[in-house]
């Protein structure tokens, strides 16, 4: 089944300038297919790794699995599921578990001769979008024995966007979701940990990919996806290399950060004039001055559909990334907050 086959469904920011080989860069982006008459389903990809190992995710009906991509720069056939009942209908979702530590071109699915591809149910009408860092991307989320602890040693095999609070929130709300998230990223270029602090969200959020030569990365066409709810979770990695909010959240440097943050939120408002925009961070440890600054910006914007939200353990829940159990608790809190806003899903 070639990538352009009509019955395939795609979700997420995907670089599809080459429709025969759409490029998956963002965590949580996926292609899915409903089929019958095949005892297996396989995918063909061409992978490029920037750092860590490269793992991809598979949902086959209700079962989840991960697959490692071992080869670079050449087509690789991944067996996503086998020993299936040929007489039954199956749904396969092939998704990007990790952030832009790697990317892959999707060349299609393989099924047994005589198999049939069926029309799947439409994706949800409700739409969400998240901007964030590794917590939003589900970084190290599967290290379930490390709740409230620093991250264990890993090579990417423990990261899974499906278990991020972001995707979990969308599932609870029966919404589709785009995750625009990258481990270590801050707001401003020159801060945070992504690419050794060279690149921040303000220069990446309009692109389909974060890594590599940013000038060559495709620009995202924002008209293609108009979310009802946008969650902005930036303001944690900004404390590196200098924690300006801890030092003096009323000083000039803190004020300058708030102005940059405000400019970025206003740019999102111009892109999404009707959306609800939720400003927040996460439970990962950071100084409370960052959240006070975000709250101050929210008040200054004086926009009834731009709101500030804090989790119960905001900024003090864990020194490491957020694990599955912690992410589910975050999703429950965020779900409750969004439901409390009223009808946010009107077109």
Order of helices and strands: EEEEEEEEEEEEHHEEHHEHEH
Helix count, DSSP H or I runs of 4 or more residues? 6
User: What is the structural class?
Assistant: alpha+beta
Question: Which runs of at least 5 residues are low in confidence (pLDDT < 50)?
Answer: none
Subunit organisation of the chains = single chain
Radius of gyration, rounded? 20 Å
β-strand percent reads: 15-25%
Structurally, the number of domains stands at 2
Number of strands: 16
Task: Look at the structure and name the CATH superfamily of the largest domain.
Answer: SGNH hydrolase
Q: What is the C-level CATH assignment of the largest domain? A: Alpha Beta
**CATH topology category name of the largest domain:** Rossmann fold
Q: Any guess at the CATH architecture of the largest domain? A: 3-Layer(aba) Sandwich
The rounded distance between the terminal residues' Cα atoms is: 34 Å
The biggest beta sheet reads:
6 strands, antiparallel
Percent in helix: 10-25%
Shape: globular
Describe this structure in words.
Helices cover 20% and strands 25% of the residues. With 347 residues, it is an alpha+beta fold. It has two domains: 9-118, Sandwich (Jelly Rolls); 127-340, Rossmann fold (3-Layer(aba) Sandwich), CATH 3.40.50.1110. The strands form three sheets. Strands 1, 4, 6, 7, 9 and 11 form a six-stranded antiparallel beta sheet that branches. Helix 2 (165-172) packs across helix 6 and helix 4 (252-271) packs across helix 5. The longest helix has 20 residues, at 252-271. Residues 10-119 form the Carbohydrate esterase 2 N-terminal domain. This is Electron transporter RnfD. It comes from Parablautia intestinalis. It holds the Pfam family CE2_N.
């Amino acid at each position: 089944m070639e990538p352009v086959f009509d019955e395939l469904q795609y979700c997420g920011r995907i670089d599809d300038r080459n429709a025969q080989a759409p490029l998956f860069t963002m965590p949580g982006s996926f292609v899915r297919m409903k089929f019958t008459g095949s005892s297996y389903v396989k995918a063909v990809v061409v992978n490029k790794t920037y750092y860590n190992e490269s793992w991809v995710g598979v949902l086959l009906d209700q079962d989840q699995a991960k697959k490692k991509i071992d080869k670079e720069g050449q087509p690789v056939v991944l067996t996503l599921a086998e020993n299936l009942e040929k007489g039954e209908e199956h749904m396969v979702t092939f998704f990007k578990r990790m952030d832009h530590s790697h990317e892959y071109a999707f060349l299609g699915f393989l099924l047994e001769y005589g198999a049939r591809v069926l029309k799947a149910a439409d994706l949800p009408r409700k739409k969400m979008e998240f901007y964030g860092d590794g917590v939003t991307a589900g970084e190290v989320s599967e290290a379930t024995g490390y709740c409230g602890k620093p991250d264990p040693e890993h090579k990417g095999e423990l990261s899974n966007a499906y278990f991020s609070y972001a995707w979990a929130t969308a599932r609870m709300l029966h919404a589709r979701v785009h995750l625009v998230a990258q481990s270590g990223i801050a707001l401003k270029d020159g801060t945070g940990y992504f690419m050794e602090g060279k690149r921040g969200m303000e220069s990446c959020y309009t692109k389909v990919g974060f890594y590599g030569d940013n000038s060559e990365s495709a620009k995202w066409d924002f008209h293609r996806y108009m979310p009802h709810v946008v969650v902005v979770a930036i303001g944690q990695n900004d404390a590196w290399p200098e924690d300006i909010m801890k030092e003096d959240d009323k000083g000039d440097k803190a004020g300058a950060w708030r102005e940059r943050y405000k400019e970025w939120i206003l740019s999102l408002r111009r892109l999404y004039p009707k959306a609800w925009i939720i400003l927040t961070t996460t439970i990962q440890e950071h100084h409370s001055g960052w959240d006070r600054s975000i709250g101050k910006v929210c008040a200054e914007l004086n926009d009834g559909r731009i709101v500030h939200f804090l989790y119960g353990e905001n900024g003090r829940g864990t020194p490491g990334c957020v694990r599955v159990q912690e992410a589910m608790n975050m999703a429950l809190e965020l779900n409750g907050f969004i439901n409390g806003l009223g009808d946010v899903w009107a077109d």
